Amino acid sequence: MTIDLYYIPDSPNCRPVLMTAKHLKVPLNLKIVKLWEGEHMKPEYEKLNPQKCVPTLVDDGFVLGESRAIISYLANKYAPDSDIYPKCPKQRAVVDRMLYFDIGSLMKSIWDWIAPQGFEKKPPNADLEKAFVKHLNILNDRFLKEHKYVAGDHLTIADFAILSSVTTLFSLDYDLSKYANITSWLDRLEKQLPFWKEHVTEPVHEFKNWIKSNA
C-alpha cells in the first residue's frame, strides 16, 4: 500500500505532516507539486484538491487535504493507541483546540505578515506584526506557562503544527528571545526530535533563501 503526499518541502503547512509521519514511522511516497510552474492549477491536481494547494494526502484511494486534518488522520489510523493524539475525549479536545488556535489564529497571522514580504516584496507591516505578536503572547504566557508542550505535558501532533508555524518566523530572522517559554519549548523539541534538522532547520533555511532571492 502506498501513501502519496503531494507537498513542498519548505511549506509551513506541509512540514507538520512530514514531522508526524516521521514520528509515527509512516512511510510516504513524496511528490513535489511545482507551484511555481502552475502544477497545482492543472485539472488532474484539482481533482485531488479543489483548493489547489498543498499538502494533499492519498492513502489507498482516500484523498485528504488540509494539513491539520491530515496529521489527525495519520495519528488516528496508524497510531490509534498513542498519546500523540490521545483517545481521552478531554485530552483530545485540548489537542484539537491547539490545532484550531494554530491554523485560525497563530499560523494565519504569521503568514499574513510574512507573505507580503516574501511574495510581494513589501516592507514589514507593523499592524500585521502586532496581530501575530498577540498570539505569540498567548502561546508563551498561557499555554506554555505551566506545561512542557502546547497541549499538556507530553508531545502531541499540536506541537508539530505549532512548531512549524513558529519556526517559519526564522525565515525572516525574527527574534523570539523575549518569549522565554516558547524558546524553552523550542530547545526541548530540538533535543527530542531526531528529524529537527530535516524538517525544521533545513526547510526554514531554504525558505529564507527563497525570500532573499525574490527580494
TrEMBL record:
GO biological process: glutathione metabolic process
Presence of keyword Transport: no
Boundaries of every GST C-terminal domain copy: 88-207
Signal peptide boundaries: none
Record-given protein name: Glutathione S-transferase 1: isoform D-like protein
GO molecular function, one term: glutathione transferase activity
Key words, A-Z: Transferase
Pfam families: GST_C, GST_N_3
Gene3D superfamilies attached to this UniProt entry: 1.20.1050.10, Glutaredoxin (3.40.30.10)
Domain of life according to the entry: Eukaryota
All copies of domain GST N-terminal, residue ranges: 1-82
Known partners and oligomeric status: Homodimer.
Keyword Transferase part of the UniProt annotation: yes
